[in-house]
Every structure is written in structure tokens, then in C-alpha cells.
Amino acid sequence: MTGDHARGREAEARPAGGHLTGGREGGVRPAGGHVTGGREGGVRPAGGHVTGDLAARQAALVAALTSGAAVPPGFDPRLVGMAQDALLRKRAGEVARAWPMLATAQGDRWPAVFIEWAAARPTNGSLRDGWDLARSLAPLTGPAGAELAAREAAWRYDGGSAPVARGRLSGWARSVRSGSLWESGGLWTRLRPKG
After folding, report:
1. CA–CA separation, 98 vs 100, rounded Å?
2. Which terminal CB of the chain, N or C, has fewer other CB atoms within 10 Å?
3. Where are the domains of the chain?
4. Where is region (Disordered) located (predicted)?
């Protein structure tokens, strides 16, 4: 189409005080706001902030996907369930990388054990998720028990806040304690403050 003809059709389609979006939606942007990119065709205020209803729906969807909350209205429960299963399998893989002996001790049951445990729990990160799971499965034996014991020795973790290292020097000093440097007193000589 040429310029004049196209402007004439555009003028017919534009309501008084509104602007065309020019995008795929083909909707009309109200004065002072703009059409959101979603299928709802909702309006976002001129400041760019998401309306309370949309924010609440998004929060409900995230809760359904990550912590086992009910599927919010307007979403296909089957598709939300598939996405939730995929996220839980992904979390199981991440925790298995952070806690390899724990995952190995569970064998082929690992994904099922983790998913059953994590289904109603939001993620706290792979280190904390694995730690909480290991504590819930205790008493652990073999390499999984040793892995948990090593983490407990090197870190302080109360189950609520992030783990805190017990101290870089203490772990290093324990590893060299049996060496001749420790026994001769040379370690203290090197670590004491100068001055």
C-alpha cells in the first residue's frame, strides 16, 4: 500500500485518543498506557508496572510450579503438572551434582525419592535441598553418611538460613595436623601475627 491510502485505513482503525500498537497483537493502546505482550490483552499503566491482578496470578502460578500449591484458575492443570514434574526432575539433577554420594546411595530410586520429598517444598538451592533431604533420610551409612558428616564438620547449617563455613583455617589446619610442620611448631610460627 502507498502512504496516503495506508494512512487513511490507519485513521479509520484508530479510536479517538488511542494509538495503534503496531505489533502482532493488532490491538489498540489506550491513551497513557500500552497493551501487554500476553494473550490476555490487558492494559499496563503508563508507569510500566504490572497490575495487581496479573501479579497475583503470576505469583499463584509460580507457587503451583515450585511448591505444590493449587493450580490457579485459567491454567491447564495437565500442562502445569508436566512443567512441575520437569522442574522437580531438574532439581533432582542439581542436587545429585551437589550431593553425589547421597544420590548414588539411593540408586535408581533417586529421582523418585527426591521428587517425593521435594514436591511440596520450594527450592532453597541444591546444597540446602540436599542437606535437608540427607538429614530427613538419616541415619545414612557408607559414602552418603560420610558426605553428610563432612558437610556437617565443615559448615554450620541450622536448616533455616544459609550454611556458613566453620572457618577456612580450621579445615586447612585439620588437614595438615598430622604433618611434620604441625608437630615441629613451624605451623604456629608461620601463622602467628608479626609485630
Report:
1. 6
2. C
3. 57-163
4. 1-48
- The answer to whether the beta carbons of residues 157 and 163 sit under 8 Å apart is yes
Give the contacts of 21 (CB within 8 A, at least 6 positions apart): 27, 28, 29, 34, 35
* Residue 44, all three cell numbers: 499496563
CA dist., res. 99 & res. 96, Å (int): 5
Q: In whole angstroms, give the CA distance from residue 170 to residue 71.
A: 48
* Cα 86 to Cα 37: distance, rounded to the nearest angstrom: 26
Which amino acid type is present at position 131?
W
Q: What residues are paired with 20 via a beta bridge?
A: 28
Best CA proximity match to 133, nearest among 192, 88, 164 = 88
Q: Characterize the bridge pairing of strands 43-44 and 34-35.
A: antiparallel
Cα 29 versus chain centre, distance: 35
Based on the number of CB atoms within 10 Å of its own CB, is 147 exposed (0-12), middle (13-18) or buried (19 or more)? buried
